[in-house]
Amino acid sequence: MSGFYNVIDNPQLHEVMHPTINPNLVTLPDAGTLPNAHGGSHTLWYGETSTGTFVGADFDQTQPALSGGTSTAANSGWAITPDLDLTGLTDATLTFWTNWEVEGVDVPWFDVMYIEASVDNGATWGPVGSGQLNPLDDVNANANVGYSSGGVGLPPVWVQHSFPLAPFCGNICWIRFRFDTVDQLYNGFRGWFIDDILVEAAGPATGPIITNVSPGAGQIDDLIFVHGQNFQSGAVISLGGLPATSAVLSNSLAQFIVPSLPDGNYDVMLMNPDGQFDVCTGCFEITQVQGPTISFVAPNWAFPGIPTPITIEGQNFDPAAEVTIAGLTPADVVVETAERITCTTLGTLSEGFHAVRVTNPDGQYDQCTGCFEVRVPDGPTDLVIHANANDIVLNWQPSPESGAEYRIYRDASANGAFTFLVGDVPDTFFVDNNVLSEPETMFFYVVRSYVP
Q1: Percentage of the chain modeled with pLDDT above 90
Q2: Can you tell me the mean pLDDT for 216-242?
Q3: Separation of alpha carbons 325 and 299, rounded Å
Q4: CB within 8 A of 37, min separation 6: which ones?
Q5: Which of 29, 34, 79, 333 has the fewest beta carbons closer than 10 A?
Q6: Cα angle 426-430-436, degrees, rounded to a multiple of 5
Q7: What pLDDT score was predicted for residue 305?
Q8: Domain 293-374: which CATH class?
Q9: What average pLDDT does the chain have?
Q10: Phi and psi of 14, rounded to 5°?
């Protein structure tokens, strides 16, 4: 092994350096702990426990906020399997489970995860399957947002990959997992984990199965996802018989870029390197009808447990468009115009950054990754409540945020989703009138600060 590769025991006991890296330099979608090993208690990892990332222990801790984590230099490394005797075989398969989180700025070309093989004791190396794991989509996320095996700005998850080894059969073979940041930018993420590596002689192979294509419509050069089973790295996806630029992200997920074809409905075919294929008949439409585009969300944050009205601004929203936040449907969704949607967030959203997605009936969608946050900012302290005649009087210490105003929430249950009572309160004083005339109700209060 070289570079930052190591076998780590109980990775879940480590985390991305807090708060120096997370949340000062990167904005992770969770607490920033490393994942549990997929099998047993240890896993192969490209990263360092001193930072929980691949930024390098000597990184500049005074660099600008939300830089994504700039290293002092680019870094790379490799891990090689013991020799594999494939001399008596004509076909074999490499499978492994992987969990990764790298930069979200230029993920096709940086922080590259290579899978390579050699049959000459490491003198030369060639790609296995497609030769790498990186997705095709150049999402150009913010510097502080990562791209993981779970998606852009989403927590990394364990996924399984399958790679054909037929080109290397008949030889003693070595497999190399190689990571290369290419540059020193955006390296404050959790890196590449590999576990449960298996090489076995290939028996009667099970062919790929396509279950759905998402979205089901779009334009030339759009990025489309194919869901299913038994996808192998190196598979080719064709649209109407025309091969498309494609990549396999796991055994159950692939993606392709829509090739230059006339408008119309097309079959989608995925063919594995062994020649087995599946066809999803008429699954994709090339159309000039533009899909939705999200420009911004306002407000872009809420307090935990408190439903919050928000507005989604953009273009091409269909009257029957569906909205999700963190995969959940908000309340009171109204498509007011093709440029505006209003809804109310759920009080069950967890703390952190969440994706907002708008999907039109034809399946085209846009996702604003990490653009809605549930957070607990600095707020007023020492809330004092006392009764005055039929009124409840609230007093609190001012927020440390300059220019802050206040919102008051009230509920009859201390564990409930507090209901908004009043906002735009400029002072640290509020009276809830005539509450004591309702003797059977006990109210609980929350005061939150915000900067208009």
Answers
A1: 71
A2: 95
A3: 13
A4: 10, 11, 43, 195
A5: 333
A6: 165
A7: 81
A8: mainly beta
A9: 91
A10: -115, 160
pLDDT band at 440 (very low <50, low <70, confident <90, very high): low
Tokens for 130?
Answer: 């497609």
Confidence of residue 245 (pLDDT cuts 50, 70, 90): very high
Owner of token pair 């790379």: 76
Q: How confident is the model at residue 439 (pLDDT cuts 50, 70, 90)?
A: low
Could you give the C-alpha distances from 420 to 10, 312, 407, in angstroms and in order? 43, 20, 8
DSSP state of 41: T
Tracing tokens 């090739």 back to the chain, one arrives at: 259
Query: What gap in Å lies between CA 418 and CA 398, rounded to an integer?
Result: 21
Whether the pTM exceeds 0.85: the reply is no
SS3 168: helix
The per-residue DSSP string of 249-263 comes to EETTEEEEEPPS--S
Pairwise CA distance, residues 399 & 304, whole Å: 18
Name the residue type at position 391.
D
Asked if pLDDT for residue 230 goes beyond 60, the answer is yes
pLDDT at 373 (0 to 100): 86
| CATH 2.60.40.10 applies to domain 384-450 | yes
CA 234 – CA 289 distance, rounded (Å): 32
Cα radius of gyration (the chain): 26
Query: 195 Cβ partners below 8 Å, 6+ apart?
Result: 37, 38, 39, 43, 44, 96, 97, 98, 99, 158
Q: Six-digit token pair at 395?
A: 């007093």
136 burial via Cβ count (<10 Å: 0-12, 13-18, 19+): middle
Other C-beta atoms closer than 10 Å to the C-beta of 177 total 23
- CATH 2.60.40.10 residue ranges of the chain are 209-286, 293-374, 384-450
- pLDDT higher than 60, residue 272: yes
Question: For 340, how many CA atoms within 13 A lie in the half-sphere containing its CB?
Answer: 6
Which token pair is 80? 């090689």
CATH 3.40.50 fits 5-201, yes or no: no
